[in-house]
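thought: fold this chain, then report.
action: predict
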Amino acid sequence: MKIIFFVFASIQIFYTVAQDSYRINLNLTDSKKDRLKVVINLPDIQEDTVEFHLPKIVPGTYRISDFGRFIHKFDAFNHLGDPLAISKISVNKWLILGKPSRVEYWIDDTFDRMKGYDENFIFEPGGTSFEAERNVFVLNNFGIIGYIDGYKNIPFELRILHSKDTFGATALEKNILNDTLDLYFAANYHFLVDGPIMYNQPDTLTKNIAGAEILISVFSPQKVVSAHEIMGNIEDLIVAQSNYLGGILPVKKYAYLIYLMDYQSLSKGMGALEHSYSSFYTLPESVADQLPQFVRDVAAHEFFHIITPLGIHSEQIHNFNYINPEMSQHLWLYEGVTEYNSINMQVQQGLYDSETFLKEIAEKITNASAYPLVSFTQMSQKILDPEFKDMYRNVYEKGALIGMCLDLALIKYSEGKLNLIGLLKQLSQKYGKENAFKDSEFIDVITTMTYPEVGAFFSRYVQGNEPLPVEKYLSYAGISVREGGEKRLAYWGNFKLGLNENNQIIALDTDHLDAFGTQIGFKENDVFYKLNGNELNLSTWRNLLLDFQENTIDGSKVKIELIREIKGKTKIIKRKAKAETYQYKYPNELIISNESDPQENKLRSFWINGLN
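observation:
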């Protein structure tokens, strides 16, 4: 222990010498109460007064994070080690008077429930966790490490001291200096925060697939799933993705970092955050039977971000402003086309049959119809504004349909010589990871590279707010849209279902109950016990709720029993209410015409099976 401390201290002394890079020290073995000390030895600063920033928002997320609120005891020092005067400008900015050589601060992790953080929590895939008692650390670097304003585009070196029995999994460039000290390199701040790191007792597997080193690391407290199982579940998916992209993956290394929770998260959800060379997942361990399929479904999407934004991106992403972000117009590309590729790839590579593929498209048509008609480029550019922020989910619905229509149009106009993935390859060659396109010119570039009809499509349905004519584009492939039928379904309350630490089904987000929910009086964290006398648990809830919603008669009596904690005591609450129903429209159905002509059949074959 004394030897480790001496080595770490000597590193800090050495780093006070003038340098042209950031050199950062994190000591995971010194984490206290879910806080971590950050020591940043700065590059040679020229100005007498500078600002230190921590991100307000980060790429891939579309809500304000304000990571500066997690900092405590911020200090700055000159090259002699003397403290400098500082003042806090805003939640994410500190003004430093004098030329700083080093800054130090303690920072809280974001996974834990803290006073004032419940409403504006950080969705866990974009957060941090410092769990010294379990020896697991989630290091999304944008939530830990800041920078001096004007000094983002220089190298960063990150040294992490850790216990012998943990391993740091990441896609960042890494040197293992000894069994407790790792050194990471990043060309600039953007690369540093684009590479999450997870330290835990090793459950890691690396395999070379299609020319890329694929790393999977899993933290599962109860050991319900392993890296080996995850690899077995997604290896064919990765192979299929490489075939879809031409037989080789466009990255040398890619990391899947998977953190399973054995407690209820602040977000009460599960998901992933994409990065250029990795993706980070947080999932509840209690639904272990669903984990392999969920990881597979999400991985199909997240992996395609190696095309965009890695190889195709705008200036707003290339020069991302972490404090005052300018959003791009092209979420239809970053998320919509990525989502479309994830399902088109699976049918072309035989992981889906055509029926499943068309069902996925039909579901997106139904889901997209629930959103108001707006200019998609305008919505994208203003996605942080109150007017548009609730429309974000539509990038995975209508955004994917934009990708589908563009794909079908390209196949038709090129007579089978070009499709969407082919266009993306051309755009990747034109720009690549080092060159950004101008946001306002991108659609004109695509039009020049393709056909005037494509420009008209963008003008009317992406930049404009005309309804997307999916029926027209599907007809190119001899496919028609049959509207779904309708049926009366019973209201359930308008809240979400979740699980508590005992794997009991609970009520969440009960602030906006419908009339039925108000009659029952659901409250946050109510445990569901019985519905009309039948016990609700993990094995019965799906069938019971489906039966209730589909077969309950309007005005009939409903009996619900809840388990609720009142003043520290657990009580069974019995409630009665009159059922209320509404008219539900079933999803649309896509039908392959029996009368499609040879040209339509050929185009459909290209679309579903890929170009020859």
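thought: worth noting. The CA atoms of residues 285 and 439 lie 41 Å apart.
final: tokens above.
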